[in-house]
Design a protein that fits this description.
Pfam families: DUF924 (PF06041). The protein is mostly helical. It contains 10 helices and no strands.
Length: 199
């Protein structure tokens, strides 16, 4: 068993269709539960620290290892370090890692639901060109989806487009301002009072 397999097993659960996997794991992926955050830290906190230190040599030479490294840099810090600046500590490392894997075609070696968690790296970027690329990638997923799975991938594309619109408008995610010690503009403060303004 590869060293990254327990992480992927935890993140994606049992094999199944994208819709089945998403239904079973949605609460882990997008819920905000202290118990899940603690479990992530206990089980994978040491690997996250290694990823942040650039110590996971060779992982990106395998599509599954590449995906696992992206999850360690992009997803797990948002759980383990929730509501602190370190939640975003892996972003600057995840973006070039994603680019290099895309250049190698690694994403095409993943299942569609796994590809979501590669492409989310660009969706999390405070950079409009990367947001545009995220929308393109999620649109590709939707176009390739079976009829039964189109609603799921349409929802992922919708979220990508919502992120893109925020960055097009503000150049950053206003909901991160307090955590990162940034001063919100009056327009951002008004936006943050709107429903759905926080991801």
């Amino acid at each position: 068993m590869h060293v990254w397999q327990p992480l992927l097993d935890w993140w994606f659960g049992a094999d199944g269709s994208a819709t089945e996997v998403s239904a079973a794991r949605h609460g882990l992926w997008f819920g905000k539960r202290d118990s899940q955050d603690r479990e992530a830290e206990v089980r994978f906190g040491a690997l996250v620290e290694q990823a942040l230190a650039g110590e996971l040599h060779g992982w990106a030479d395998d599509p599954q290892g590449w995906l696992a490294q992206l999850i360690l840099l992009d997803q797990l810090p948002r759980m383990i370090f929730r509501d602190t600046p370190r939640a975003f500590a892996g972003d600057s490392l995840a973006r070039p890692l994603l680019r290099s894997g895309l250049d190698r075609g690694w994403d095409r070696r993943l299942t569609p639901i796994q590809r979501v968690f590669a492409y989310l790296v660009f969706e999390h970027a405070e950079d409009l060109s990367l947001q545009d690329r995220a929308v393109e990638l999620f649109a590709d997923l939707l176009n390739e989806a079976t009829a039964a799975e189109r609603p799921l991938f349409a929802s992922f594309l919708d979220f990508a487009e919502r992120h893109q619109r925020v960055i097009a408008r503000f150049g950053r995610f206003p909901h991160r301002n307090v955590i990162l010690g940034r001063t919100s503009t009056d327009e951002e403060q008004a936006f943050l009072r709107e429903p759905g303004s926080r991801f």
